[in-house]
Amino acid sequence: MERNDIGLAQQDVPWRAALVALAVLGSIFLVGYRWTNAMAQGNALPWRAETWFDRNVPFLPWTLLPYLSINVIYPLSFFLCANRIELAQFCKRLLAAQFTCFACFWLFPLHNERVFPPVGGFLGVLWKELQAFDMAGNLAPSLHAATLLILWDLLCKNSIVAIPRWLLHAWFLLIAVSTQTTWQHYLFDLITGLGLGLGCVLLFPSVPRRQA
């Protein structure tokens, strides 16, 4: 095996780098999300993003499960990058999405004015935890949707993931739908969030694995 091949092989599973990246980006998310939303409290714009579609979307408590599943997929995805280059591109996408959303939450805060129905049982516990974490002004663009699209692109192109691609597509689509059926976001938030995620993917394109 040539020296270059050995070097590439040693970078195939950059778990230490993935752990550091997860810690850094996770910290940036927690601090940035809390800070920008705290700054935006009481400063919501009078404009409402709610449309006829939003007023007719049913509230489906069970969709909390796919909605919150992104909290599991997100940290795992760092360890599924094939090498340091792919990990770096992935981190750039996430950082671009996070800082864009933080700026929008701070400068153009939009509040969710829906009245949520009661949720009981195990789902009620999850619901209370979600409501305790969420804050006013974090609607558009949806960081949940932007992150979803970035994860979607990474995992559906990843040969390490042994899950059938049709199942991955179906689950990610369900997560996108759940942003509506949990009433966490309006349709406008979802569309702008997915658009932001796509922009980040195009801005920092994937590197062919043979070249990485």
From TrEMBL:
Transmembrane segments: 13-35, 64-82, 94-112, 132-152, 159-177, 183-204
Keyword ATP-binding: no
Keyword Transmembrane helix among record annotations: yes
Keywords tagged on the record: Membrane, Transmembrane, Transmembrane helix
Protein name in the entry: PAP2 superfamily protein
Native source organism of the sequence: Aromatoleum tolulyticum
